[in-house]
Amino acid sequence: MASKAYSKIVVAVDGSSTSDLALQEAIRVAGGSGATILALYVVDNAMVLFDAGYYDPSQIERAFVESGTRALEAASKLLGDAGVKFETQLVTEPAVAGDIAGSINAAASEWGGDLLVIGTHGRRGVRRLVLGSVAEAVIRQSTMPVLLVRGTSSEQ
Questions:
Q1: Domains of the chain and CATH, by start
Q2: How far is CA 66 from CA 87, 92, 136, in A?
Q3: Which one of 70, 87, 102, 142 is CB 3.0 to 4.6 Å from 96, fit for a cystine?
Q4: According to its UniProt record, which protein family does this protein belong to (predicted)?
């Protein structure tokens, strides 16, 4: 049985060095096959779901959008330098409120991706310790193959 190369590769980025490694791995998988890579950033809206009454959630959301924009600009540079076809997507209205993994999977599926690449450790820090990693949740929910990329030993 002949294997078919992936043609639409989705990479979840968050600006971390591990997501940069995931992006580099996606570029390697795309190789000379002509695959298109989607660099995807989902704004974490979990913090704005809580109404504490003493802060303006729009300021936090604006900071997350700016962070996502910077992460996608960096990804665009890396993808452009590699000479691969690519798109970027900033998801500001997640499909599943407060669920980064669900929103990553929904966006990847909607785009028609056939491979999802994600780093094992990103910028979710304390939340990861409490709720489990985004990568783990992506794997559990995904309907397409997922390629996990580990960070360097100093990041883990």
A1: 8-155 (3.40.50.620)
A2: 18, 11, 26
A3: 102
A4: Belongs to the universal stress protein A family.
Tally Cβ neighbours within 10 Å of residue 2: 3
What is the C-alpha end-to-end distance of the chain, expressed in Å?
A: 38
Would you tell me the crossing angle of helices 57-82 and 17-30 to the nearest 10 degrees? Answer: 40
> What would the pLDDT profile of 114-126 be if each residue is shown by its tens digit?
999 999 875 544 4
pTM of the model: 0.84
